[in-house]
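re: ur question from earlier - yeah i can do the single chain one, its not a big deal. heres the input i used so u can compare w yours
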Amino acid sequence: MLKLQVASRAGVGASAEGCASSGCGGSSAGLSHLPEHIRAKVHNHPCYSEEAHHHYARMHVAVAPACNIQCHYCNRKYNCANESRPGVVSELLTPAQAVKQVLAVAATIPQMAVLGIAGPGDPLANPERTLATFRALAEQAPDIKLCVSTNGLALPDLVEDLCALNIDHVTLTINCVDPDVGAQIYPWIFWKNRRIKGRKAAEILIERQQRGLEMLVARGVLVKVNSVLIPGVNDEHLKEVSRLVKAKGAFLHNVMPLIAEPEHGTFYGLMDQRGPTHDELQQLQDACAGDMAMMRHCRQCRADAVGMLGEDRGAEFSLDKIETLEIDYPQAMARRRHVHAAIEAQRAAAAQPPGKGEILISPTAIKRVRRETRPVLMAVATSGGGLINQHFGQAREFLVYEASAREVRFIGVRKVGAYCIGPEDCGELDWVLEDTLRALSGCEAVLCSRIGFEPWGQLEAAGITPNGEHALEPIEQAVASLYQEWVAAGRLAMPSPELARRRA
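and the output i got, formated as tokens:
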């Protein structure tokens, strides 16, 4: 029989130290190729494991205001609570305030597993504030993983300090390894008390990034490399970036789309630099995946993000709200252990024994399937837990999976506005639905727990099949099951309009 593998469960094309080339992190089985100490590091890290992000939360604390470089895609605005993009925060915290906020969040959201410092500037351009925060948290919240994100300019000087605090996950932004490309992205760096511009600035930054990467890898730190895809600037060049960082030992590569809306006030936004399309992003990720494990579930989080990936609960933990809190953290830790144990029990129960998650197509259909079936993109509405458990109208994002005659694999995230914002406001926001339909371009099915008549009709008119029959089922299994149904019905014998367009 023809077997269709669930990629995130099985993991294909993996290197000895990285994840599957198609993506990173499935179930325990999906991580089985990794050494035990690596599995332990990524198992409950929502950024380093795609499967873990369904179950575990993270938070960022905004203690690092200064930055030592300027990027054409960045404009660090404060007090923009409705924006969700890197560099944006609502409140700047002192290390002491950050620690109290972390303890409050960890006591309130027991799924939290990771604390990161990602800005709003560069954490390592603010070493005193950043390291003081990490030292206090290592002492007061020892059960929380500590992470840092950096542009890498100051990284080589601080590797030993980070390792001394047992920080074993570092995100390093590398947008290029060619100074001529870098000169188009970075107008200046601040280096040794001087502002340096142009190609020279890019040369220094690239050399420091590469040295820092090598130093971290040599000390056993897992490095995730972030790269911003800028059409016409570094789109083709990022393939070389992937090859180089993989050769130097990076664990994971996250290629993110440029955010370039003019209202954000960035140089690129004001200069009409466009961001990539969904197809362009996916094609580049797929091209890089041949050399490097790819992260595809990134949400490009705020520098003060709180909660599960895809949600920002930071407003619940503002300074005025936590100032008077008395937190019994030992009790909170006990609760967290209980919740984490329950999560792991759920993950173990959902883990499939070998062969269970495979789609088996009858021998009589094998030839036709191999010759005629085509891949299908399916969008999924989920509120977490790895299940199809969200109403279509309440979704603020859709996870996109590709099912083919070979595998089911996670592709990426499509952000949307909520069509329903309350029991009395559902179905009234036609413009939101129109935007959602555009965001789901290329998808042929939407799997959700429930959906109303109006969006159902609109989806069908757009060539997208709504499906609520797999509510509360594991995502990959449901996608695989629907694909099997479509194969059996002969629905996949002819190319979709979107596939025909791609081929043309």
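The first strand starts at residue 2 and ends at 6. not sure if urs matches, ping me
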